[in-house]
Write a structure and sequence with these properties.
Radius of gyration: 19 Å
Keywords: Carbohydrate metabolism, Glycosidase, Hydrolase, Polysaccharide degradation, Signal
CATH architecture: Sandwich
Strand content: 35-45%
Shape: globular
Number of helices: 3
Helix content: under 10%
Order of helices and strands: HEEEEEEEEEEEEEEEHEEEHEE
GO molecular function: cellulase activity
Structural class: mainly beta
Largest sheet: 15 strands, mixed
Family: Belongs to the glycosyl hydrolase 12 (cellulase H) family.
Pfam families: Glyco_hydro_12
Protein name: Cell 12A endoglucanase
Length: 338
């Protein structure tokens, strides 16, 4: 009887997980303080068709696992979507934020040639309910020649050490919004640290105004093109903590998700990304992998940031030499080609 009950519970759990996936253009799934969006804001640019489905796999406390699978063909210099997990919280001025702890582990499985990224996106405004004025993007993966928005095409700073990793810093405009992008010159193995440290650097080195309100935090993928791409986020957590009265308490989740809705195309085109050549973070480790570095197969997909369709150069060729037929990374962040 216990065995039968256990089987029933497992079946119910699997059924619930399956029901959490959506392939709708503006489909979303809520879990605790997170909203997982499919967000096919640029799908009309896929001149040869495509499909994307995104869903929740599990949730435990403040940690979730989620995935996104996609195929996009045609319109190779345009971003098609931004599957992402957004944290819901009450906007707070950065002067009152004491930390933004976050941890993520993910893997990407694909064959052939793709172009996509996987990033954190954080947005600020001079008002708690104002329009986005600044965007801070932390790149965890860039595949196939995608790069950050930049006024000059060159970093404004190089090799900046933040939270145990060195980053090149870029800046540029996405419409009226100033974008600061942190891109590691070599691959990173995921992230586990305090996102507030990036704002602290911007304040010290670029006079960023810390009276700005943090109004949005999300992590996701922006694909340009690719076939049968699977990205699995096996572990993701984030929180915004404030220090009013000397305490270090998490910002409460907003009871209304209207502040983070992504059903409006204009609001969804919110990050950066340019199709470029020679900007592939996956190529650096090809010659350093040992035979033991076989990446495990992924059943889910995810990657990147809400990208703008701004393009300065065409995408990398279909035979990009920076990609190999072997697993490229194996640690917390795994990028794999079959």
């Amino acid at each position: 009887m216990k065995v039968l009950l256990g089987a029933a519970v497992i079946a119910a759990t699997l059924s619930a997980a399956s029901a959490a996936e959506t392939c709708d253009q503006w489909g979303q799934t809520k879990s605790g303080d997170y909203i997982i969006y499919n967000n096919l804001w640029g799908s009309s640019a896929a001149t040869e068709g495509g499909k994307q489905c995104t869903g929740l796999d599990s949730a435990s406390g403040n940690t979730i696992a989620w995935h996104s699978t996609w195929t996009w063909n045609g319109g190779n210099t345009s971003v098609k979507s931004f599957a992402n997990a957004a944290l819901t919280f009450d906007a707070a001025p950065l002067t009152e934020v004491t930390s933004i702890p976050s941890s993520i582990e993910f893997e990407v499985k694909y064959s052939g040639t793709i172009m996509a990224n996987f990033v954190y996106d954080l947005f600020t405004s001079s008002k708690s309910d104002g329009e986005k004025e600044f965007q801070v993007t932390i790149w965890l993966a860039a595949i196939g020649g995608v790069g950050p928005i930049s006024t000059t095409g060159k970093p404004i700073a190089e090799g900046i050490a933040i939270e145990g990793t060195k980053w090149d810093v870029y800046s540029g405009l996405n419409g009226d919004m100033m974008v600061y992008s942190f891109v590691p010159p070599t691959p990173v193995d995921g992230f586990d640290g305090d996102l507030l440290a990036f704002f602290t650097y911007l304040k010290k080195s670029h006079k960023f105004d810390m009276s700005q309100y943090l109004i949005k935090l999300e992590c996701g993928t922006g694909p340009f093109f690719g076939t049968d791409v699977t990205l699995k986020v096996s572990k993701y957590s984030a929180a915004v903590k404030t220090g009013k009265g000397g305490s270090n308490s998490p910002v409460q989740s907003s009871p209304d998700d209207s502040s983070v809705t992504q059903e409006d195309e204009k609001a969804s085109k919110e990050v950066e990304g340019e199709a470029r050549s020679n900007v592939d973070l996956t190529g650096e480790l090809e010659d350093t992998l040992s035979p033991d570095d076989e990446a495990t197969e992924s059943e889910e997909e995810t990657a990147g940031s809400a990208l703008s369709p701004t393009v300065k150069t065409p995408p990398a060729s279909s035979e990009d030499p920076s990609l190999s037929d072997t697993p490229i990374l194996k640690t917390k962040c795994i990028l794999r080609r079959d």
